[in-house]
Every structure is written in C-alpha cells, then in structure tokens.
Amino acid sequence: MHNGKKLWSIFGPLIVACLLVVVLFSLPISKKHSAAIEHKAAVSLSPVVFKNQSIKQQALSDKRTNYVPFFGSSELRRMDRFHPSVMAARYHNYTPFLFGSKGTQSLPQFFNINSMENQLADQKAVYIISPQWFTKQGVQAPAFKFYNGELANLTWLKNANPKSPYDRYVAKRLIAMLGSDGTVSSYAKKIANGQDLSGWDKAVVRFRLNMLVHEDAIFSGFQLSDNYEKHILPNVDRLPQKYNYDKLYDEAMATAKKATDNNDFGINNHFYNKRVKPRLTSTKGSQKHFNYTASPEYGDLEVVLNEFKNTNTNVLFVIPPVNEKWEKYTGMDMSMYYRSVDKIKFQLKQQGFNHVLDLSHDGAKPGFMEDTIHIGWAGWVKVDQAANQFISTKQAQPDYKINDEFLSSTWATLNPTPANLQKFATDYLK
Amino acid sequence: MINWIASLPNYSAYGTPVYFFYLLLAILPLGIGLYFGKRFSWYEALISFIFIFLMFDGSSWQQGISLIAYVIYQTVIVMGYHHYRQKKNAAGVFYLASALSILPIVIVKLSPAMVGHNSLLDFLGISYLTFRSVGTVIETRDGMVKSITPWTFIRFMLFMPTITSGPIDRYRRFEQDYQKVPDRDSYLKLVNTGIFYLFLGFLYKFVIGYFFGQHFYPYFERAAMADPHLLSWNLLGVMYTYGFYLFFDFAGYSLFAVAISYFMGVKSPMNFKQPFKSKNIKEFWNRWHISLSFWFRDYIFMRFVFLATKKRWFKNRNALSSTAYMLNMVLMGFWHGITWYYILYGFIHGLALVVNDWWLRFKRKKLKNMPHNKFTTGVAIFITFNFVMFTFLIFSGFLDTYLFK
Q1: Which residue, A53, A126, A38, A105, is CA-closest to A313?
Q2: Which of A102, A324, A330, B162 could share a disulfide with A363, CB 3.0–4.6 Å?
Q3: In this complex, do A140 and B222 lie within 8 Å of one another by their Cβ atoms?
C-alpha cells in the first residue's frame, strides 16, 4: 500500500468520527422538550429529572401548564388513586411536578432546587419533610450520589460564595458525600476554606457546564419512567366527576380497608407479604434505639430554607405521620418522634415558614397510611386538600428571617425539649 | 511558588475525554518524528514533565514533592547497587538494597493502620513505581542490567503513559524498546493497534464502566444498604456490578496507557486478556492485571520456590508450592492496603490457587475418565467467574460499610 493510503486507513475513520461528533453537538437540534415529555417527567421520579436541569426548568417556566414543584421522598412513589398528581389531573388547575424518591433528603433537594432557582422565583411549592430523614448520619452517601450529578454540583459551584456560611456548609457536606478526590471536591474545598475560585477554575467550570448542559438537553428526555401511563392516567377516570372532600375521604378509607385486610397494622397487603411478613419476628422491638432528634439533616434542611428565602418561594411544608400500630410493634419511642417534629417545626416557624401541615398525629387514623411509614389513600386526600387550598388561593407575601445559627452543630445535636428550644431561642436567636 | 503551584489546575491521567485531546496534540510531533525514524528524546522529556506536573500540581502539590523525593531516593539506591554489583555479589547487600527500595511503600501502607492518616510520603502511583524500582534491583542482581545511568533509569520510572497505574514494565525490556526506533511499517502497525486500543478503552471506561460505576453499582449499593435482609439479591447486584465496574474501568485505563505507549514507540505490556473467560483461577491470574501478577510470579513466587528448594525447607513439593501461593497472594493483599478486606481477598485467592492445584492433581490421578467437553468447560468458567466476582465483593470494601458501619 502507498504510504498516504496507509495513513488514511489508520486516521481516516478517526477523523470522520471526530467530525461526526462536532456535527452532532453543533446541529441546531431543538433544545425544547415536548409537552408530553414534560408531563411524563412530572411524575417519572427518574434520577435524570432530579439531577439534570433542562426538563424541569422548561416545565416550570411553561405558561400552558401550571406546574407546581412537590419536593419529597419515597412517599411520592405511592401512586394510588388519591395521589396528589391524580387528584390534580382530575380536579385542580395545576399539575404537581414531583421531585423525590427514596433517599432524596434535604441535601440532594438543595442541589435540585439550586439548579432551578430562576424558575422558582416568587412561585409556590410543597415540601414534604419526613422525620425519618433525621437519623444520626443524615443522608447516606450512596443515596446522595445516586440523585446528584456533576451538572448540579458545577451549577452550584459557579455561583458559590466563600463568604456565605451557607455555601461553606454546603461545600463541607459535598466533600463528606463525594470524598475528597475529583474536580468538584477540590473546588468545594476552596469554598469550604473561604477561598474564591480562581479565574481559571471558573473557566473550567463554565466549559464543563457548557458541555453538560448540551448533553442534558439532547439525552435527558430519553430516560424517563412510564409512571404517567401506568399509574396516573388509568387512575384519573376512576375518581368521581365532582370534587367532594368527605365523599373522597370515605372512598379512600373503604379502598384502604380492602387493600389492607391481611394484617393488623393497616399495611398494604402486597407490601405486608413481601416486606414485612418474612421478618416479622425479628423486627419486633427493633426500632427502640431510633433517634431523630440529633442529625446533620437539620443543617441540611437549613440550606434548603435559605434557598427558598433567596428565591422568595412560598412553601407549604407537610410533615407526614408514621404508622402508629407498626411503630408500637417495633418499639419506636413516640415521644422522641414528637420531639423531633417539634424541632423541625421550631426551625421552620422561627424563620417565618408558617405554612406547615403537621400530620404527625394522624398515624393511627384508618386508611391514612399505605404501609409502615408512607402516607396513602385517606392521607393523600388530606394532603391534596391542603395543597390545593394553598396553591389555588392567593397567599400573603412570605417574610422569611433566616438565621445561620441553625447550621451549627449546637442546633443539629440539641435535644428538643420545650425548655431546650426556649433556651436556644433566647441564647442564639434574636 | 508553592501557592502558585497549588492554585494551578490538576489533570489526573486519562480522567476525561478532553484530556486525550491535549495529550494527543502534545505527542503528535513525537509521532511525526517516529514516522521519519527519529526519536525526539528531549521533546518527550519535556511533555512528560508537563503532563506529570499537571497530575501532581494544584491540590496534589504535596504528592508532587513526595514523587520527586521518591524518585531521587530510588535512583540513589539503584545506581549505588548497580555500581556495587559490577564488582561483588553478596546476598546481604542485595537484600539491603531491596529492603531500602521497599521501605517507602511499607511506611505508606502501614501509616493509615498505625497512625490513622495517610503518610506524607504517599503519592498516586507509588506502588507501581516501587515495582519498577525493586524489579530493576532484582534484574541487576541477576546480571541482566548491563548498563544503566540515572537518566535512563528515571526515564524508565517516569514513563508518562504508565506512571500512575501501570502496566508495570521491566527495565531491560523497556530500555531495549526505547533504544531502537521502529521502522516505518512496524510503527504504523503500532499506531493502528494503538488507535484500536484507545477506542476500545473509551468504550470500556467512559461507556460501559461509566454505566456500571455511576448507575448500576450505586443503584444496588443504595438498595442493599436499605434492604433489611443481610443476604439479599441486592447484595448480589452489588457484587456483579462492582466486579464489572472494576474490570471495565481498570482495563479501559490500561488500554489507554498501552495505546499512548504505542504512539510513543514503546510496546508496554498488556494488562488484561479477557479474564472472565478463564477456566480456573490460575488461568485467571494469567489474564487479569497481568503485569502485576507476572511481577509477583517472577519476583515473589519463583524466588521463594528457588530459595526454599535450595535450602531444602520442604520435603513435599506440593507443600512448597502451596506455601508459595499463599505467600504470593497474601503479600499481594497487603500490597493493596492494610485492611481486613484486602488481606482476606489475597488470602482467599491464595487458598483458591492451592485448591485448584489439588483438584488438578486429583483429577489426573483419580478421575481419569472424567469427560472433557463444552459443558464441563462451561461449568469451569461459570465457577471461576462467580468465585472471582465474590472475591471482588470482598475487595470492594463494601462489606466493611455494610457489616460494621
């Protein structure tokens, strides 16, 4: 073979491949997702929606459909007929955009919220806080990593301010989650130490962001789950035509009764057979040592609150209950549980977050819980009513007074007796 | 100065696709030179310095200083021993030189377990450099290294494509390659294979490895942590997804290192040869992390067998080889790090090699009529594969968090 031919046979395919990539990334591919994709994404609970940006940003700024973000965790997956997404499709003039799965506690939610700041500005949102998040370790690193991505981290880093105690706190938590290796952690280290990123660092961040945003726009729409077709759409027609709270509540209780008739806990039959029954004896008394009153999660919640203050988002907080019969069986200390709820509410109310739907005492009501810790049926009817009331009527401008004392370990570890809460208020809050 | 270096950007080797763009651009003049039969040693030294500098600057600058000190230290030992070896050949001096050469890595590996934090001597790639340096000392003892200068030794140690994670080359082989410039036809063949390896590496590390490492493994890790049962399908998921992640990530990395070496006209040895096809554990170690396992085979296993035979430590040949296997693999476990799971990993592999030998002997003597066909081969591959995956689960350290934290 001639030398030129030889060289071409080696490098030709390489050159063509490179050209094709350049073409793909510079073609005027529509960056718009269709309305159908938005709809699907709103209930898909897929990690790509959570950690990427293009779909959620587009949906929340969509004028045709009024999407309202619902932040939460695993309860959002309990998609029975009375789930807020089904109820809203039938009765309300808004559509919940769901953000949450098992493990999306406040820190992952912070990065989620941070990457759609502009879309949240002056809007309303619902935030479901589970006391079960507030364990000694807080969010687990594997769960965090599953719902977190470079795009969200760099978006935050681009504007992170080393002088802000909130950003320094987030930087420290980010390093704790990701480990100290890697570009993101090395930049986070600078923020945590109170140093600005250099001009070069920022250029690298911008360059990476540019690529990731493009990738997100092209590929995210392909990785959504079918929850909409499977769980939402078929359920909508099974709801009565006219909205009537009492009737719906009764119907929910009746449905629950049928669906939970193989056990004494009021747990969904299927869930009971699969997850509870096989280990019933070993779980008795297993939650005696559970403690939700001291946790890094309180600080993580604070950075979320600060984010809501910055975006001036008006938020309804929901504190869901736990299944009381079940907790009695597993020996959880209910007074500890109520103290943790008090601590969460104290942190909210002291800073002007006054819309709180506290359902923590409803865990023994029939049909309220779908399983051990997740709300369902009648519980959803009640949540939906409060959410609709909050979203569909005009609310006063929020007046948040954020206080970084809630980032401290003093607060995170405080045992929330009424006396201790009172003392914290007089010592640290003005 | 330090502040300035600490503020510079850091690029770990082959970390991102963009890295390859810079790297290939930088070695393009080298390639053109080799095409015309010339090796631009000075230009190569310069870009090697720049890319190694970029691996160890920024937040890793302390590692950079440790690297410099380490290379000077090893050069002094190797040159000193080579100088001594020209005249004499006492075993004691050889053992002393080897011990001094191993000393830094022993300190580095012991530090986390003894004092609770990483040693200041540590830097990314120290273990791979140790293999090269100790290997050179041993080759010198065997009289295989005729001439060596500080410059050629440092060039071998700091060969940029393989510096942080191998493959582990041998001084004599490397130097022979380096001295002769391949003719045009063989160089073009190298480049052609190199490009194939490079793209196979992309597929392994950035596509398959990415999905296993960033999606499947975290998924099962999370699910297993949340699963109330100690033994669950999710734990099995952790096992397989981690095993595949480990292979595709590391094999991809090794392919990059070999490909870049080829472009630079050096035939670095291959590190992986379809390891999951192995029919027994011995074959597995001939296919998995080959440059490491051959290093251990030549310099630990064989040396021990020779020494023990010479000194007549064992009456039984099988007892000798079993001891050598155990020593070999447990030492490899320790080399990975002093944690219970690395050591257990080495121990189990040692045991497996012993059992494998025993089984082959047993089969030869007692099961002469055992059929050998596609089915039995399939069973052998299946058992080997699953055993290996199980040991990777131990190796991953996941059980440490899972059971004790």
Answers
A1: A126
A2: A324
A3: yes
